[in-house]
């Protein structure tokens, strides 16, 4: 089992406040005899007749010594999970959850903008103090 990010419980609370129900903690993906784990699976009902929105959420804290290293690791994991989800036909949208300080920091720098746009990242920005979602960025 993977180690939980320091903001794991914070993101769960933020998603709950935003109307999401956690369905998997973690969400296991199996491919080629290997298992990998996305931090969370969640869904949000749209309406009584419709199927709910289903997402997978990878949480990153960006508390390491190098924001560039954290960014490259995050994108590598994100791409691997996204590719596996497509390959196995898992109908969930993958999101990368990052704290406001990371989004306002490395993601606003040229390298962060380049990778965010090139890799088509879907980002959830959360307030780690208030335990709430601030922005969904597609």
Please explain how this structure is put together:
With 138 residues, the protein is an alpha/beta fold. It has one domain (8-137): 3-Layer(aba) Sandwich (Trna Endonuclease, Chain: A, domain 1). It has four helices and eight strands, in the order H-E-E-E-E-E-H-E-H-H-E-E. It has helices at 8-17, 67-88, 100-104, 110-118, and strands spanning 21-24, 27-31, 34-38, 40-44, 53-59, 93-99, 123-127, 132-137. A six-stranded mixed β-sheet has the order 1-4-5-6-7-8, with helices on both faces. Strand 4 (40-44) and strand 5 (53-59) form a beta hairpin. It starts with 7 loop residues before the first helix and ends with a strand. The model has no long low-confidence stretch (mean pLDDT 94).
Architecture blueprint of SSEs:
Elements: H1 8-17, E1 21-24, E2 27-31, E3 34-38, E4 40-44, E5 53-59, H2 67-88, E6 93-99, H3 100-104, H4 110-118, E7 123-127, E8 132-137
Parallel strand pairs: 5-6, 6-7
Antiparallel strand pairs: 1-4, 2-3, 4-5, 7-8
Brief synopsis:
The protein has 138 residues and is α/β, with parallel strands linked by helices. It is built from four helices and eight strands; from the N terminus they run αβββββαβααββ. It has helices spanning 8-17, 67-88, 100-104, 110-118; strands at residues 21-24, 27-31, 34-38, 40-44, 53-59, 93-99, 123-127, 132-137.
- Helix percentage range: 25-40%
Mean of residue pLDDT values: 94
Biggest sheet layout: 6 strands, mixed
| First-last Cα distance | 29 Å
Per the CATH scheme, the topology name is: Trna Endonuclease, Chain: A, domain 1
Q: What shape does the CA trace take?
A: globular
